């Protein structure tokens, strides 16, 4: 296994999370974020295994695991591994927008460098889609005090892969091709991050 950096994958939300779902489509289908997050992480890990990149899935369970517990798990792995860790929390967005965005904690940290790599890999994989960014501090990540970003002891980012309440974005999120591309963008970024 490659020892350069341990990747911590957080597939946020569990099957009982209320509200984390798309509208019901005409054919009766619906996207549930917990399923999407886990499917993307599963696809990522399949490639990381082939690439011999070391990782840990923080939430193997289907049920909701509290943010505090996820942070506790991440910090335990970081303490064991040392400075060479990076947390990626995988999500799908909602709230009336479109496109991809990546979040880090407030202020400039190593997380910003890693998040820029992720942003660039998504921009390369999805040149036809909107990339949502905040360039106020000179890079494309958005900054937030999300609990998992603020309280982990290692570089951390949260990816929001398109909007499940936007029908065009939803087509990406629910299609085999769209999910393959989302996973590939994550993996391409991880392959660069582990070398830093």
Automatic annotation (TrEMBL):
Organism of derivation: Paenimyroides tangerinum
Protein name, UniProt field: N-acetylmuramoyl-L-alanine amidase
Keyword check for Methyltransferase: no
PANTHER family: N-ACETYLMURAMOYL-L-ALANINE AMIDASE, N-ACETYLMURAMOYL-L-ALANINE AMIDASE AMIC
Keywords for this protein: Hydrolase
SMART domains tied to this protein: Ami_3 (SM00646)
GO BP annotation list: peptidoglycan catabolic process
Protein origin, superkingdom: Bacteria
Class of enzymatic activity (EC top level): hydrolase
Domain MurNAc-LAA stretches: 71-191
EC number assigned by the record: 3.5.1.28
A GO term, aspect molecular function: N-acetylmuramoyl-L-alanine amidase activity
Xref: InterPro entries: MurNAc-LAA_cat, N-acetylmuramoyl_amidase_3
Annotated GO CC locations: outer membrane-bounded periplasmic space
Catalytic reaction annotation: Hydrolyzes the link between N-acetylmuramoyl residues and L-amino acid residues in certain cell-wall glycopeptides
């Amino acid at each position: 296994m490659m020892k350069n950096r341990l990747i911590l994958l957080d597939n946020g939300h569990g099957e009982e999370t209320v509200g984390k779902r798309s509208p019901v489509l005409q054919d009766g289908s619906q996207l549930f974020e917990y399923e999407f997050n886990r499917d993307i992480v599963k696809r990522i890990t399949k490639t990381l295994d082939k690439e011999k990149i070391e990782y840990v899935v923080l939430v193997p369970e289907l049920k909701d695991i509290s943010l505090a517990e996820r942070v506790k798990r991440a910090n335990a792995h970081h303490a064991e591994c040392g400075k060479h860790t990076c947390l990626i929390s995988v999500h799908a967005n909602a709230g009336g927008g479109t496109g991809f965005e990546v979040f880090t904690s407030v202020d400039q940290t190593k997380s910003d460098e890693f998040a820029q790599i992720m942003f660039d890999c998504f921009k390369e994989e999805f040149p036809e889609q909107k990339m949502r960014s905040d360039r106020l501090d000179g890079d494309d990540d958005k900054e937030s005090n999300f609990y998992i970003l603020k309280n982990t002891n290692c570089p951390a980012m949260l990816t929001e892969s398109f909007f499940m309440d936007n029908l065009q974005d939803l087509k990406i999120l629910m299609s085999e091709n769209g999910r393959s591309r989302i996973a590939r963008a994550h993996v391409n970024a991880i392959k660069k991050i582990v070398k830093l």
